Amino acid sequence: xxxxxxxxxxxxxxxxxxxxxxxxxxxxxxxxxxxxxxxxxxxxxxxxxxxxxxxxxxxxxxxxxxxxxxxxxxxxxxxxxxxxxxxxxxxxxxxxxxxxxxxxxxxxxxxxxxxxxxxxxxxxxxxxxxxxxxxxxxxxxxxxxxxxxxxxxxxxxxxxxxxxxxxxxxxxxxxxxxxxxxxxxxxxxxxxxxxxxxxxxxxxxxxxxxxxxxxxxxxxxxxxxxxxxxxxxxxxxxxxxxxxxxxxxxxxxxxxxxxxxxxxxxxxxxxxxxxxxxxxxxxxxxxxxxxxxxxxxxxxxxxxxxxxxxxxxxxxxxxxxxxxxxxxxxxxxxxxxxxxxxxxxxxxxxxxxxxxxxxxxxxxxxxxxxxxxxxxxxxxxxxxxxxxxxxxxxxxxxxxxxxxxxxxxxxxxxxxxxxxxxxxxxxxxxxxxxxxxxxxxxxxxxxxxxxxxxxxxxxxxxxxxxxxxxxxxxxxxxxxxxxxxxxxxxxxxxxxxxxxxxxxxxxxxxxxxxxxxxxxxxxxxxxxxxxxxxxxxxxxxxxxxxxxxxxxxxxxxxxxxxxxxxxxxxxxxxxxxxxxxxxxxxxxxxxxxxxxxxxxxxxxxxxxxxxxxxxxxxxxxxxxxxxxxxxxxxxxxxxxxxxxxxxxxxxxxxxxxxxxxxxxxxxxxxxxxxxxxxxxxxxxxxxxxxxxxxxxxxxxxxxxxxxxxxxxxxxxxxxxxxxxxxxxxxxxxxxxxxx
Length: 739
Hints:
With 739 residues, this protein is mainly alpha-helical. 66% of the residues lie in helices and 1% in strands.
């Protein structure tokens, strides 16, 4: 781990003496050699300040080096550099005032934008500490001139208060006047913006105007806690805590009594359902507020964002199953429409337990109260029973599945129908029906197809056809390899897949389907089957052509085709295919080993978000996981933004899947991660457990889901109001499971 190491050494050196301090400073200097420019700048200045008295010439050299590096990089496109310059100036203000001024003057040539407002405010605070009040006021005026946003005004006022209290009061009053009693419109975005402004006012007025702060907190419309939104009672609690810190216990108690009275009944363990772009059939509108369910101004951007995220993911990941290609449309844990829940996690446990103990798996599925997950779980168990020729159990499960499938509640779109594209998968009823249908293949593919034709969408029906074809191709090759006569339907479907035209569904989806079929054809013919077609299809997508090359021509040809993609956004997909090559030919194969090293080197050169998802692909595979420092990957993933549109999806993906990997290698780190994420997002906690089903079953045996449910039941009991025992289910699972 290198990120933040220099700063950690300096923090320790501040508290050390003698030889320990000298050693820590030496380690700091070595660590700075591997630090990013934004970390090096304040690190060099802090190191110079620490060396100022004992090694003045070396300290002066560090100062010159810091100024030179800033001049080379400034202003740059990395907002962290502005934060680094402001932090460095703060550290230099005591031992090196001229250097601090030079660092601060760099802000004269920088543009104010959303990402550097904090840096400008910090720089203004340091100008004030250096007694250059005109320069400090100039930076603050630039911040105020950039935007009238309430949060920016409050940040500016906090700095002004250190040297011009009257001006600070005027800015605060202007911010208060800018927030109307009601949102400007009733659409969801206006209401959320208004709540955010009220939260900002409450937080910033707490210290000197607690009554006004509490009044603004009470005006927040949202009353249910749900990150990342602001809510009334969290704001009131913040005001109360700040008053308690100031010694005003009477005000604190009064506000806390109010907040606690409103929340006497503990909320359910599941996060409140977020408003989205669909609703239960027949709901129509929210009768309590009179507001319509649909909000096109906010919903269309959601559609656009979800679809864009999907297009990016399917380009940058490697798939061999069309179902997984579609599943990439699933929203992440922070997003509207995400599918994660305790019911889904228990269903995943049940499907994994079924191969060991079908009876125990049925107990888990029968405990599901979420209608969609119940139908999917029963379909999965039916497939398991059919695979082991358990006729009686299969018949019972088929009957139960039919009842559960018809009980899936129907939803309707708020916007124009979204059924002709992959967004259909986001709607809960359509997702459940698709997932149930694919679990019925190949045993009851025709009924599954009929169900989707009646209750699904044209797009999902097409994707089901593709999923069936991919499964049939795999089964055809498996039959041949195991010396069995291939089932004629599988052989016919496999042959049809190889003959399918490449210009109908685009090169990417065609590559997903046909590359896997080409590999299956190679395996079958290598075991004596006659060729299914006269000539294999020619793929247009380079990644999937490389996958076909891996089977037909070996790892050298595959690597040669992949190397040009190492410096492209498809690097994560290259890493996944590299891991597949290692699984087939061994990680020690010369070509595979060289390609793996090239992938790791390319990841280190890539942007942080691409590094994280690339290394995840290697960490997933048991034969390449040794190439990844899982703890370092976690550290670097947590540094990614949870709100940036080009980082949040990937950050979510890596955290979900890395938990299971860490559980087997560093369980103490994994459990700390689970604890930390549970405190902020129940959806993320259930998603991480879902991705750790295999290691949890290995560690705890088939009782793992029962043990986890009992722990969850105890947690709910601890947070429930005294005497409240009426909790029939916990996030889609019967409370009594495991009793």
